[in-house]
Amino acid sequence: MNPYQLNAYGMALKAVGEIVQDYDSDKMFPALGFGAKLPPDGRISHEFALNGNPQNPYCDGIEGVMEAYYRSLKSVQLYGPTNFAPVINHVARYASSVKDGSQYFVLLIVTDGVISDMAQTKESIVNASKLPMSIIIVGVGPAEFDAMIELDGDDVRVSSRGKYAERDIVQFVPFRDYIDRSGNHILSMARLAKDVLAEIPEQFLSYMRARGIKPSPAPPPYTPPTHVLQTQI
């Protein structure tokens, strides 16, 4: 934590969050933490509301997410193991309830690449590949991201217990490729945006096409109300 600049997680969250937030109409984002001991009793959780309110984990815009993230860092104790499956399953529960094409869910995971439940995570991804959702994993820090590249599934489709994912729903982006040597500046927001969003359109369309869902008719273009001014002479 540095009072004068964002840490690497904060930078990644802000940069990538600002890219993806434009695809959300109300800009209210549920934000979840995983891998920490929670107050007051120190229980370990892999699926907790960053704003401390499990009934309403929604944050107002990316600024609200950032605020909740930094506030939670002051109250929780970071703790292993690092399990991804609970958060993926959390979003999958929402996605499984809206299969008519009216909503599509994107889960953004910011991680240092360490994962303790690889087998369960693969199973969660295989199950989620049937649902209207995509996962963007942003890797932060200097680690080897072999496990994240495997989850990305570009070269070998993710499988679990002999079952392959119905479609590729994961995009992995190593954040260090987009920042300068000091680690404080993003070299190109445009390139980061392009790579973060590279696979989402095809993933979205592949779900809709496979389900035979056609686009809804476009709403009529907005026309500002006209004011008729009457003047009396």
TrEMBL record:
Any one GO CC term of the record: plasma membrane
Top-level taxon of the source organism: Eukaryota
Domain Copine C-terminal: 1-215
UniProt-recorded Gene Ontology molecular function terms: calcium-dependent phospholipid binding
GO-annotated biological processes: cellular response to calcium ion
Protein name: Copine 8
Source species of the chain: Myotis myotis
Highest classification ranks of the organism: Eukaryota, Metazoa, Chordata, Craniata, Vertebrata
